[in-house]
Amino acid sequence: MTATAPALTALAHGWRALSLLHDRIEAHLERVLQAEHGLSVREYSLLDVLSRQHDGEGGHLQMKQVADAVVLSQSATTRLVTRLEDRGLLMRYLCPTDRRGIYTNVSDAGLKLLEEARPTNETALREALQETAEDPRLESLVRAFETVRVPVGAAA
């Protein structure tokens, strides 16, 4: 198979379209969340993921799980956690059953900001999808995206 074979070309075009869709949506969310709540998309995602933790069995995420959920490296996730902790939006504490483990929870201020930002995020996401669906190259991807049903709390 050569580099210009139709199957490879279709895959490359599909990947570029998916990347373009992601970039347009993320850029729109970034602008709106920053303007209205002073949050980046990654900060919002981190607060959202951590807010879904619970005290039951397996309810707290390890840093690798958090990193996977927000699609960042562990080191970038740790830096992001530190920045949000410095802003008073997160807090870390030792695991009560394993003193080597450190948990990260959303503070009351972080929960308040997240609750204020959730409707904004939802509206901005809908706006971005509507705008992006007007691009004929991306319309079918937007329609496919709108049919995806992932259970709440499903890991990335």
Detailed description of the structure:
This protein is mostly helical and 156 residues long. It has helices spanning 6-37, 41-51, 63-70, 74-86, 108-133, 139-147, and strands spanning 90-94, 102-106. The chain has a two-stranded antiparallel ribbon with strand order 1-2. The chain is globular. The model has no long low-confidence stretch (mean pLDDT 88).
What are the key terms here?
single chain; mainly alpha; two-stranded antiparallel ribbon; globular
Summarize the structure.
The chain has 156 residues and is mainly alpha-helical. The protein contains six helices and two strands.
Helix content: 55-70%
| Overall pLDDT metric | 88
**What is the string of helix and strand elements?**
HHHHEEHH
Q: Count the helices. How many?
A: 6
Total strand count, please?
Answer: 2
Rg from C-alpha positions? 18 Å
Major sheet attributes? 2 strands, antiparallel
Structural class by helix and strand composition? mainly alpha
Strand order of the largest sheet: 1-2
Topology:
Blueprint: H1 6-37, H2 41-51, H3 63-70, H4 74-86, E1 90-94, E2 102-106, H5 108-133, H6 139-147
Antiparallel strand pairs: 1-2
Helix pairs in contact: 1-5, 2-5, 3-4, 5-6
